[in-house]
Amino acid sequence: MHKSLIIASTLALSVGVASAQTTTPTTPATTATPAQTTPATTSTTTAAPTQVTTFSDVPAGHWAKDAVDVIVQRGLIQGFPDGTFRGNESLTRYQAALIFYRLLQSGTLSSGNLSQGDLATITRGMQEVSTELAALTTRVTDLERLSTEQQARITALEERINALGTGTGTAGAGTDTAALTARIDALEAAVRNIPAGPQGPAGPAGPAGPAGTATTTTDTTTATTTTDTTTTTPEPSTVVIGDAAPVETDAARGNLYAGVSAGIVNAGTLGQCYLPNASSGRAVEYCASFGGMIGSTQVIGPVGARVAADYRPGANAISADVNAMYHLNTGSSLQPYAGLGLGLTSSTSRTATTNATDTYLSALIGLDFQITDSIAAFAEADARYYLSNKGVGAVQNTAGTTDRGFGNTVKAGLKFFF
């Protein structure tokens, strides 16, 4: 409904105004006297021609060009800033309000031959767009103010850019440039005065080249005298720059191990043991033993544990013991250790034809020689203090079944760490 009123108002207004401006009254022409036809009188009654704006999108011969020229000549429409009329676009309420506003300002409504119906239609259209007219006026004012402020900011920015380019404009531009230059000079001087660090290992000397021309370089700073003083300060021994010499470390080995051993034991009450050969046995003053072990170098902190067993054929004795071990880490291939524990020996009974079991306290000391990361050779001495002497494989120097005493063994063998 609103658009219909606006369009009707605009059309009625255009037709009425056009008819009023193009109709010439006949009465003055019929009553005119010769004096009224003088050049002076004619010049005062003849309206000066108004220049019509030409739009790029309304060419000559266009079906609406005459109507557009009349509307523009009356000042109702001025077109767009790019010189176009844009006749195919829809008429907005703001644009209609602007047309009515120009009509009111020019006083054309009071001088036109408009009917009462046309005036009523125009009045209703003006009432419809009165609010838009006020808003449009406010927006135009705000846009003009913002345009002025924006232009002022652009002008100030251009002045600052020009001043930065020459270095002689606004206060602070040249000062900033000078301060930046001074900071760069100070940084270069500080870099030159950094003391040299410890020198790394030198490589092989290369071939000497031809001698060059001696050149003396003088570092001069404007209005500044710099004295380069170098103070030699001992560097910490822990700081190394460059390739450091390789450091020997102790062999890395696993915590668990297993081993085999061979040993000799004093014959004791057995008298002699026999070594077999191709023809007959040969009596000797010691007996051989063969054994094995498994253990760990660390179970609780630095304390480990080991379970070992051995067999002595001369006494038909089997011994097994459990020892708490302490391995001393020397940082080299030689690793000493010691242990304490309990054990049992089962051997031929002294009073019967069956085997007898004796209990002993074990103490040992030994030394590992690390061959590789996983293999070590060892030698150790075992001291056993028997609490009973029921079997021939127990106390070495007495045959009493209630006696107590020592039985000693020397072993050697290999350990495998993993």
Short description:
The protein has 418 residues and is of the alpha+beta class. The chain has nine helices and ten strands.
What topology does this entry show?
Elements: H1 2-22, H2 27-30, H3 39-45, H4 65-73, H5 93-106, H6 108-111, H7 116-128, H8 130-166, H9 173-192, E1 256-266, E2 273-275, E3 282-284, E4 286-300, E5 303-312, E6 317-327, E7 334-348, E8 355-370, E9 375-386, E10 405-417
Antiparallel strand pairs: 1-4, 1-10, 2-3, 4-5, 5-6, 6-7, 7-8, 8-9, 9-10
Helix pairs in contact: 1-5, 1-7, 5-8
Rg, Å, rounded: 61 Å
Global morphology: elongated
The secondary-structure element order is: HHHHHHHHHEEEEEEEEEE
Strand order of the largest sheet: 1-4-5-6-7-8-9-10
The biggest beta sheet, please? 8 strands, antiparallel, barrel
Mean pLDDT: 75
The helix content is 25-40%
Query: How many H/I helical runs?
Result: 9
Unreliable stretches (pLDDT < 50, length at least 5) are 1-9, 11-49, 217-231, 237-242, 247-251
Beta-strand fraction estimate? 25-35%
Alpha-beta content class: alpha+beta
Number of strands: 10
End-to-end distance: 99 Å
